[in-house]
Protein backbone atom coordinates (compact mmCIF):
# COMPACT_ATOMS: atom_id res chain seq x y z
CA UNK A 1 0.00 0.00 0.00
CA UNK A 2 1.30 3.45 -0.83
CA UNK A 3 2.34 5.95 1.82
CA UNK A 4 -0.71 8.07 1.01
CA UNK A 5 -2.94 5.04 1.41
CA UNK A 6 -1.36 4.22 4.76
CA UNK A 7 -1.81 7.80 5.89
CA UNK A 8 -5.45 7.77 4.81
CA UNK A 9 -6.11 4.54 6.72
CA UNK A 10 -4.43 5.87 9.86
CA UNK A 11 -6.36 9.13 9.62
CA UNK A 12 -9.63 7.22 9.23
CA UNK A 13 -8.89 5.03 12.28
CA UNK A 14 -7.90 8.07 14.34
CA UNK A 15 -4.32 6.90 14.92
CA UNK A 16 -2.95 10.21 13.67
CA UNK A 17 -4.54 13.53 12.92
CA UNK A 18 -4.26 17.27 12.83
CA UNK A 19 -6.18 19.61 15.09
CA UNK A 20 -8.06 21.58 12.42
CA UNK A 21 -10.81 22.69 14.78
CA UNK A 22 -8.40 23.67 17.55
CA UNK A 23 -6.55 25.98 15.15
CA UNK A 24 -9.71 27.42 13.63
CA UNK A 25 -8.79 31.00 14.54
CA UNK A 26 -5.78 30.73 12.22
CA UNK A 27 -7.98 29.52 9.34
CA UNK A 28 -10.61 32.18 10.03
CA UNK A 29 -7.95 34.88 9.97
CA UNK A 30 -6.43 33.55 6.75
CA UNK A 31 -9.85 33.36 5.07
CA UNK A 32 -10.73 36.89 6.18
CA UNK A 33 -7.43 38.15 4.75
CA UNK A 34 -8.01 36.41 1.40
CA UNK A 35 -11.62 37.60 1.27
CA UNK A 36 -10.65 41.21 2.00
CA UNK A 37 -8.01 41.03 -0.75
CA UNK A 38 -10.64 39.74 -3.18
CA UNK A 39 -13.12 42.47 -2.23
CA UNK A 40 -10.48 45.19 -2.54
CA UNK A 41 -9.47 43.85 -5.97
CA UNK A 42 -13.09 43.83 -7.01
CA UNK A 43 -13.64 47.39 -5.79
CA UNK A 44 -10.44 48.80 -7.31
CA UNK A 45 -10.19 46.97 -10.62
CA UNK A 46 -13.78 45.92 -11.14
CA UNK A 47 -14.92 43.10 -13.37
CA UNK A 48 -14.07 43.01 -17.06
CA UNK A 49 -17.63 42.42 -18.23
CA UNK A 50 -17.97 40.71 -21.58
CA UNK A 51 -19.82 42.10 -24.54
CA UNK A 52 -22.78 39.88 -23.70
CA UNK A 53 -23.42 41.87 -20.52
CA UNK A 54 -22.86 45.44 -21.70
CA UNK A 55 -23.80 45.36 -25.37
CA UNK A 56 -21.70 46.25 -28.41
CA UNK A 57 -20.07 44.41 -31.30
CA UNK A 58 -17.53 41.63 -31.72
CA UNK A 59 -15.36 41.49 -34.86
CA UNK A 60 -13.26 38.54 -35.96
CA UNK A 61 -10.45 39.09 -38.47
CA UNK A 62 -7.53 37.04 -39.78
CA UNK A 63 -4.26 37.67 -37.96
CA UNK A 64 -1.90 39.92 -39.92
CA UNK A 65 1.47 41.45 -39.18
CA UNK A 66 -0.32 44.06 -37.04
CA UNK A 67 0.28 43.44 -33.33
CA UNK A 68 -2.52 43.02 -30.81
CA UNK A 69 -1.77 46.37 -29.17
CA UNK A 70 -1.78 48.15 -32.53
CA UNK A 71 -5.06 46.47 -33.50
CA UNK A 72 -6.55 47.73 -30.23
CA UNK A 73 -5.51 51.28 -31.07
CA UNK A 74 -7.10 50.98 -34.54
CA UNK A 75 -10.36 49.66 -33.05
CA UNK A 76 -10.58 52.40 -30.41
CA UNK A 77 -9.82 55.09 -32.99
CA UNK A 78 -12.42 53.74 -35.41
CA UNK A 79 -15.18 53.34 -32.83
CA UNK A 80 -14.45 56.05 -30.29
CA UNK A 81 -14.95 53.49 -27.52
CA UNK A 82 -12.70 51.23 -25.45
CA UNK A 83 -11.82 47.98 -27.21
CA UNK A 84 -10.50 44.59 -26.11
CA UNK A 85 -8.42 42.57 -28.58
CA UNK A 86 -7.49 38.90 -28.17
CA UNK A 87 -5.46 36.64 -30.40
CA UNK A 88 -7.08 33.23 -30.80
CA UNK A 89 -5.11 30.25 -32.04
CA UNK A 90 -1.61 30.35 -33.46
CA UNK A 91 0.23 30.12 -36.75
CA UNK A 92 -1.72 30.33 -39.98
CA UNK A 93 -5.01 29.73 -38.17
CA UNK A 94 -4.58 32.66 -35.78
CA UNK A 95 -7.39 35.21 -35.67
CA UNK A 96 -8.08 38.43 -33.82
CA UNK A 97 -11.20 38.89 -31.71
CA UNK A 98 -11.97 42.58 -31.35
CA UNK A 99 -14.63 43.55 -28.86
CA UNK A 100 -16.06 47.07 -28.86
CA UNK A 101 -18.71 48.05 -26.31
CA UNK A 102 -21.47 50.61 -26.70
CA UNK A 103 -21.92 50.81 -30.48
CA UNK A 104 -25.03 50.24 -32.58
CA UNK A 105 -25.59 48.64 -36.01
CA UNK A 106 -24.73 51.75 -38.06
CA UNK A 107 -21.52 52.32 -36.13
CA UNK A 108 -20.62 48.63 -36.37
CA UNK A 109 -20.66 48.74 -40.19
CA UNK A 110 -18.36 51.77 -40.26
CA UNK A 111 -15.98 50.20 -37.71
CA UNK A 112 -15.86 46.96 -39.69
CA UNK A 113 -14.90 48.79 -42.88
CA UNK A 114 -12.26 50.88 -41.12
CA UNK A 115 -10.76 47.82 -39.40
CA UNK A 116 -10.43 46.03 -42.74
CA UNK A 117 -8.56 49.03 -44.12
CA UNK A 118 -6.28 49.47 -41.08
CA UNK A 119 -5.46 45.78 -40.73
CA UNK A 120 -4.89 45.26 -44.43
CA UNK A 121 -7.50 42.54 -44.98
CA UNK A 122 -10.49 42.21 -47.26
CA UNK A 123 -13.69 43.69 -45.88
CA UNK A 124 -15.49 40.39 -46.41
CA UNK A 125 -12.98 38.70 -44.08
CA UNK A 126 -14.07 40.87 -41.15
CA UNK A 127 -17.09 39.21 -39.57
CA UNK A 128 -19.13 41.03 -36.95
CA UNK A 129 -21.73 40.16 -34.37
CA UNK A 130 -23.87 42.78 -32.67
CA UNK A 131 -25.12 42.24 -29.11
CA UNK A 132 -27.81 44.44 -27.60
CA UNK A 133 -27.47 45.64 -24.00
CA UNK A 134 -30.96 44.41 -23.12
CA UNK A 135 -29.95 40.82 -23.88
CA UNK A 136 -26.90 41.15 -21.63
CA UNK A 137 -29.07 42.56 -18.85
CA UNK A 138 -31.40 39.57 -19.15
CA UNK A 139 -28.45 37.18 -18.85
CA UNK A 140 -27.19 38.98 -15.75
CA UNK A 141 -30.62 38.89 -14.13
CA UNK A 142 -31.04 35.19 -14.89
CA UNK A 143 -27.60 34.49 -13.42
CA UNK A 144 -28.46 36.27 -10.18
CA UNK A 145 -31.81 34.49 -10.01
CA UNK A 146 -30.15 31.12 -10.54
CA UNK A 147 -27.58 31.83 -7.85
CA UNK A 148 -30.21 32.99 -5.37
CA UNK A 149 -32.46 29.97 -5.99
CA UNK A 150 -29.50 27.62 -5.63
CA UNK A 151 -28.43 29.09 -2.28
CA UNK A 152 -31.97 29.00 -0.89
CA UNK A 153 -32.46 25.36 -1.91
CA UNK A 154 -29.08 24.40 -0.45
CA UNK A 155 -29.88 25.98 2.91
CA UNK A 156 -33.31 24.32 3.05
CA UNK A 157 -31.95 20.91 2.09
CA UNK A 158 -29.09 20.97 4.60
CA UNK A 159 -31.38 22.23 7.36
CA UNK A 160 -33.69 19.24 6.73
CA UNK A 161 -31.05 16.60 6.07
CA UNK A 162 -28.69 17.70 8.86
CA UNK A 163 -29.52 20.77 10.98
CA UNK A 164 -29.72 24.53 10.67
CA UNK A 165 -26.21 25.08 12.04
CA UNK A 166 -24.71 22.98 9.26
CA UNK A 167 -26.87 24.85 6.75
CA UNK A 168 -25.52 28.18 8.02
CA UNK A 169 -21.93 26.92 7.92
CA UNK A 170 -22.33 25.61 4.37
CA UNK A 171 -23.90 28.91 3.29
CA UNK A 172 -20.97 30.87 4.73
CA UNK A 173 -18.52 28.54 2.96
CA UNK A 174 -20.32 29.03 -0.37
CA UNK A 175 -20.29 32.82 -0.04
CA UNK A 176 -16.58 32.54 0.84
CA UNK A 177 -15.90 30.53 -2.34
CA UNK A 178 -17.93 32.86 -4.58
CA UNK A 179 -16.24 35.98 -3.20
CA UNK A 180 -12.75 34.56 -3.72
CA UNK A 181 -13.53 33.40 -7.27
CA UNK A 182 -15.03 36.74 -8.29
CA UNK A 183 -12.13 38.59 -6.67
CA UNK A 184 -9.60 36.50 -8.60
CA UNK A 185 -11.43 37.38 -11.82
CA UNK A 186 -11.12 41.06 -10.97
CA UNK A 187 -7.42 40.81 -10.10
CA UNK A 188 -6.50 38.71 -13.15
CA UNK A 189 -8.64 40.77 -15.50
CA UNK A 190 -10.25 37.85 -17.33
CA UNK A 191 -13.41 38.67 -19.22
CA UNK A 192 -16.70 37.76 -17.57
CA UNK A 193 -18.92 35.97 -20.08
CA UNK A 194 -21.89 33.58 -19.89
CA UNK A 195 -19.24 30.82 -19.74
CA UNK A 196 -17.97 32.38 -16.53
CA UNK A 197 -21.45 32.28 -15.03
CA UNK A 198 -21.81 28.61 -16.00
CA UNK A 199 -18.45 27.81 -14.39
CA UNK A 200 -19.38 29.75 -11.25
CA UNK A 201 -22.66 27.89 -10.82
CA UNK A 202 -20.87 24.60 -11.43
CA UNK A 203 -18.27 25.09 -8.72
CA UNK A 204 -20.97 25.62 -6.12
CA UNK A 205 -21.92 21.98 -6.47
CA UNK A 206 -18.30 20.86 -6.17
CA UNK A 207 -17.79 23.08 -3.15
CA UNK A 208 -20.86 21.67 -1.46
CA UNK A 209 -19.86 18.07 -2.19
CA UNK A 210 -16.82 17.98 0.11
CA UNK A 211 -18.72 19.87 2.81
CA UNK A 212 -21.61 17.39 2.79
CA UNK A 213 -19.19 14.44 3.00
CA UNK A 214 -17.67 15.83 6.20
CA UNK A 215 -21.10 16.77 7.60
CA UNK A 216 -22.42 13.27 6.97
CA UNK A 217 -19.50 11.76 8.87
CA UNK A 218 -19.98 14.28 11.67
CA UNK A 219 -23.70 13.55 11.95
CA UNK A 220 -23.05 9.82 12.17
CA UNK A 221 -20.32 10.13 14.81
CA UNK A 222 -22.25 12.51 17.07
CA UNK A 223 -25.23 10.25 17.65
CA UNK A 224 -25.79 9.97 21.41
CA UNK A 225 -22.78 12.20 22.01
CA UNK A 226 -24.15 13.41 25.34
CA UNK A 227 -24.24 9.83 26.71
CA UNK A 228 -20.46 9.67 27.01
CA UNK A 229 -17.72 11.74 28.60
CA UNK A 230 -14.76 11.00 26.37
CA UNK A 231 -15.18 13.45 23.49
CA UNK A 232 -16.44 16.99 23.08
CA UNK A 233 -18.30 18.01 19.95
CA UNK A 234 -15.17 19.75 18.65
CA UNK A 235 -13.19 16.53 19.13
CA UNK A 236 -15.68 14.59 17.02
CA UNK A 237 -15.74 17.34 14.38
CA UNK A 238 -11.97 17.19 14.17
CA UNK A 239 -12.05 13.41 13.78
CA UNK A 240 -14.61 13.77 10.99
CA UNK A 241 -12.32 16.12 9.06
CA UNK A 242 -9.30 13.85 9.50
CA UNK A 243 -11.20 10.70 8.52
CA UNK A 244 -12.33 12.26 5.22
CA UNK A 245 -9.22 14.38 4.60
CA UNK A 246 -7.42 12.14 2.10
CA UNK A 247 -10.66 11.48 0.23
CA UNK A 248 -11.31 15.22 -0.11
CA UNK A 249 -7.75 15.91 -1.26
CA UNK A 250 -7.81 13.06 -3.80
CA UNK A 251 -11.14 14.07 -5.36
CA UNK A 252 -10.07 17.71 -5.54
CA UNK A 253 -6.72 16.93 -7.19
CA UNK A 254 -8.37 14.60 -9.71
CA UNK A 255 -10.89 17.34 -10.58
CA UNK A 256 -8.23 20.07 -10.77
CA UNK A 257 -5.97 18.20 -13.23
CA UNK A 258 -8.30 18.30 -16.27
CA UNK A 259 -9.52 21.80 -15.37
CA UNK A 260 -5.90 22.95 -15.11
CA UNK A 261 -5.31 21.44 -18.56
CA UNK A 262 -8.18 23.50 -19.96
CA UNK A 263 -6.91 26.66 -18.29
CA UNK A 264 -3.17 26.51 -18.94
CA UNK A 265 -3.07 24.53 -22.20
CA UNK A 266 -6.41 25.22 -23.86
CA UNK A 267 -6.62 28.84 -22.78
CA UNK A 268 -2.94 29.71 -22.51
CA UNK A 269 -1.32 27.96 -25.47
CA UNK A 270 -4.23 27.42 -27.83
CA UNK A 271 -5.79 30.81 -27.12
CA UNK A 272 -9.33 29.52 -26.73
CA UNK A 273 -11.06 32.41 -25.01
CA UNK A 274 -14.20 30.52 -23.94
CA UNK A 275 -12.02 27.91 -22.20
CA UNK A 276 -10.45 30.68 -20.14
CA UNK A 277 -13.86 31.94 -19.09
CA UNK A 278 -15.04 28.57 -17.80
CA UNK A 279 -11.80 26.97 -16.61
CA UNK A 280 -10.57 29.82 -14.40
CA UNK A 281 -13.80 29.91 -12.41
CA UNK A 282 -13.74 26.11 -12.11
CA UNK A 283 -10.08 25.99 -11.09
CA UNK A 284 -10.31 28.70 -8.42
CA UNK A 285 -13.69 27.49 -7.20
CA UNK A 286 -12.62 23.87 -6.81
CA UNK A 287 -9.55 24.83 -4.80
CA UNK A 288 -11.51 27.30 -2.65
CA UNK A 289 -14.29 24.75 -2.11
CA UNK A 290 -11.90 22.07 -0.86
CA UNK A 291 -10.30 24.62 1.46
CA UNK A 292 -13.59 25.92 2.86
CA UNK A 293 -15.03 22.46 3.55
CA UNK A 294 -12.03 21.60 5.75
CA UNK A 295 -11.02 24.91 7.29
CA UNK A 296 -14.25 26.92 7.38
CA UNK A 297 -17.49 24.91 7.31
CA UNK A 298 -16.78 22.19 9.88
CA UNK A 299 -14.93 24.39 12.42
CA UNK A 300 -17.82 26.88 12.15
CA UNK A 301 -20.33 24.11 12.90
CA UNK A 302 -18.27 23.14 15.95
CA UNK A 303 -18.30 26.77 17.12
CA UNK A 304 -22.07 27.01 16.76
CA UNK A 305 -22.72 23.65 18.45
CA UNK A 306 -20.41 24.39 21.38
CA UNK A 307 -22.70 27.33 22.25
CA UNK A 308 -25.57 24.96 23.06
CA UNK A 309 -26.19 24.34 26.79
CA UNK A 310 -25.98 20.57 26.29
CA UNK A 311 -22.63 20.82 24.51
CA UNK A 312 -21.32 23.24 27.12
CA UNK A 313 -22.28 20.80 29.88
CA UNK A 314 -20.72 17.91 27.93
CA UNK A 315 -17.47 19.82 27.45
CA UNK A 316 -17.36 20.58 31.17
CA UNK A 317 -17.84 16.88 32.04
CA UNK A 318 -15.24 15.77 29.50
CA UNK A 319 -12.62 18.21 30.78
CA UNK A 320 -13.35 17.23 34.38
CA UNK A 321 -13.04 13.53 33.51
CA UNK A 322 -9.76 14.14 31.71
CA UNK A 323 -8.40 16.09 34.67
CA UNK A 324 -9.42 13.27 36.99
CA UNK A 325 -7.83 10.67 34.71
CA UNK A 326 -4.62 12.68 34.50
CA UNK A 327 -4.50 12.91 38.30
CA UNK A 328 -4.84 9.11 38.51
CA UNK A 329 -2.07 8.58 35.98
CA UNK A 330 -4.36 7.38 33.22
CA UNK A 331 -4.41 8.59 29.62
CA UNK A 332 -6.29 11.94 29.72
CA UNK A 333 -7.94 11.61 26.32
CA UNK A 334 -9.15 8.05 26.88
CA UNK A 335 -10.11 7.50 30.57
CA UNK A 336 -10.42 3.90 31.68
CA UNK A 337 -13.98 4.37 32.97
CA UNK A 338 -15.37 5.52 29.63
CA UNK A 339 -17.05 3.42 26.98
CA UNK A 340 -17.05 4.26 23.25
CA UNK A 341 -20.29 5.23 21.55
CA UNK A 342 -22.79 2.39 21.08
CA UNK A 343 -22.57 2.79 17.30
CA UNK A 344 -18.78 3.14 17.27
CA UNK A 345 -16.50 0.09 16.95
CA UNK A 346 -13.97 -0.35 19.78
CA UNK A 347 -10.97 0.20 17.52
CA UNK A 348 -12.35 3.56 16.36
CA UNK A 349 -12.11 5.16 19.79
CA UNK A 350 -8.66 6.57 19.26
CA UNK A 351 -7.12 9.86 20.27
CA UNK A 352 -8.13 12.89 18.23
CA UNK A 353 -4.61 14.17 17.80
CA UNK A 354 -1.38 12.24 17.97
CA UNK A 355 -0.66 8.57 18.43
CA UNK A 356 -3.33 6.18 19.51
CA UNK A 357 -3.40 5.43 23.24
CA UNK A 358 -4.53 2.14 24.73
CA UNK A 359 -6.89 2.46 27.72
CA UNK A 360 -5.80 1.11 31.03
CA UNK A 361 -7.07 -2.34 31.94
CA UNK A 362 -10.38 -2.34 33.74
CA UNK A 363 -10.69 -3.63 37.27
CA UNK A 364 -14.03 -5.34 36.86
CA UNK A 365 -13.82 -9.11 36.51
CA UNK A 366 -10.52 -9.45 38.33
CA UNK A 367 -10.22 -12.56 40.42
CA UNK A 368 -13.15 -14.22 38.72
CA UNK A 369 -12.44 -17.93 38.16
CA UNK A 370 -12.30 -19.16 34.61
CA UNK A 371 -15.05 -21.26 33.10
CA UNK A 372 -18.79 -20.89 33.11
CA UNK A 373 -20.54 -19.20 35.97
CA UNK A 374 -23.02 -21.24 37.87
UniProtKB/TrEMBL annotation:
One of its GO terms (cellular component) is plasma membrane. One of its GO terms (biological process) is intracellular protein transmembrane transport. Keywords: Cell membrane, Membrane, Protein transport, Translocation, Transmembrane, Transmembrane helix, Transport. This is Protein-export membrane protein SecF. GO terms for molecular function: protein-transporting ATPase activity. Its main location: membrane. InterPro entries: SecD/SecF_arch_bac, SecD/SecF_bac, SecD/SecF_CS, SecD_SecF_C, SecD_SecF_C_bact, SecF_bac. It is a multi-pass membrane protein. The keyword rRNA processing does not apply. It comes from the Bacteria. Forms a complex with SecD. Part of the essential Sec protein translocation apparatus which comprises SecA, SecYEG and auxiliary proteins SecDF. Other proteins may also be involved. Residues 322-374 are annotated as: Disordered. It is found in: Cell membrane. Belongs to the SecD/SecF family. SecF subfamily. Residues 116-306 form the Protein export membrane protein SecD/SecF C-terminal domain. Residues 363-374 have a biased composition (Basic residues). The lineage of its organism: Bacteria, Bacillati, Actinomycetota, Actinomycetes, Kitasatosporales. It holds the Pfam family Sec_GG. The chain crosses the membrane at residues 26-44, 143-160, 167-190, 196-218, 249-272, 278-302. Part of the Sec protein translocase complex. Interacts with the SecYEG preprotein conducting channel. SecDF uses the proton motive force (PMF) to complete protein translocation after the ATP-dependent function of SecA.
Amino acid sequence: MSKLGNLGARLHRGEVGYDFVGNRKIWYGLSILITITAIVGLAVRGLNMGIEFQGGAVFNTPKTSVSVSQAQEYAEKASGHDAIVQQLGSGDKATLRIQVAGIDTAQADKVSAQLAKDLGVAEKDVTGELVGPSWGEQIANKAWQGLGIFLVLVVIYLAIAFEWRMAVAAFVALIHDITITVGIYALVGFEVTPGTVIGLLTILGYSLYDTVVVFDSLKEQTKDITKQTRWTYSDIANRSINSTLVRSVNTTVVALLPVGGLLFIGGGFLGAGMLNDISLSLFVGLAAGAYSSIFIATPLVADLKEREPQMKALKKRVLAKRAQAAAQGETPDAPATDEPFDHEPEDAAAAVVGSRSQPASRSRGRGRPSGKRR
